[in-house]
Amino acid sequence: MSIQESGEMYLESILVLSKKNPSVRAIDISEHMGFSKPSVSRALGLLKSNGFVTSTKEGFLKLTEEGKNIAEKMYERHTELTSFLTLIGVDENIASKDACKMEHVISDESFLAIKELSDSLKNK
Hints:
This protein is mainly alpha-helical. The protein has six helices and two strands; from the N terminus they run H-H-H-E-E-H-H-H. The chain has helices at 5-20, 26-33, 37-49, 65-87, 92-102, 108-122, and strands spanning 53-55, 61-63.
């Protein structure tokens, strides 16, 4: 199943927030992403109906296996691209913002090439 960039961002946010606190709620995502509660609620509804997220009766969110796989892929891309861009001299804040855009559109082939180059530069 294909997922839009905004959905990938929500899944990645749930993953990042769950690393800090295992109990993630919609309000946490709203605050983290800077989106309104109704926007977050609508997006989470779509993610739930497409099988990427579940929620408990208390309102705690959990990524499904498929949702977790997508979130981890986006998170890895974000961290690796940010690291690479800072390695070649880009300011860390700019690198992170650029990586956030790039992570959703870069091909697997190009990402792996950048990751390999980054690793070789780090090991020099």
